[in-house]
Design brief:
With 98 residues, this protein is an all-alpha fold. It has one domain. Helices cover 63% and strands 0% of the residues. The chain contains four helices and no strands. It has helices at residues 7-23, 33-51, 61-68, 73-90. Helix 1 packs antiparallel against helix 2 and helix 2 (33-51) crosses helix 3. The longest helix is centred in the middle third of the chain and has 19 residues, at 33-51.
């Protein structure tokens, strides 16, 4: 008998692994529109697969995010970059990252 992983567990795995992989090194990125689109497409591809939604269903991204309770990956990266910038600005001037 094959066991199924429920959607909440899949979403937690996404938040731990896939989001971390997409965010890796993002504090130094300069995001152009094309990169933003690619990041969002990667996130939506995973979330659609998680919910079992196909292209034929024509479900909007906002609706999918609402169902999963996830935030736009680009907004998350921009918030992380802002947080990192504030962290670097508080550092002593002799620290390497500054």
């Amino acid at each position: 008998m094959k066991k199924q992983i429920n959607k909440a567990t899949k979403l937690r795995i996404h938040n731990i692994t896939a989001k971390a992989a997409l965010n890796f090194g993002s504090e130094a990125w300069v995001l152009k529109k094309r990169e933003e689109q690619r990041l969002e497409a990667a996130q939506m591809k995973f979330l659609k697969h998680l919910l079992g939604i196909t292209k034929l269903d024509k479900e909007k991204n906002q609706c999918i995010r609402r169902k999963t309770g996830s935030q736009n990956i680009v907004k998350g990266i921009k918030q992380y970059q802002e947080k990192w910038l504030q962290h670097v600005q508080r550092m002593d001037t002799n620290r390497i990252p500054k």
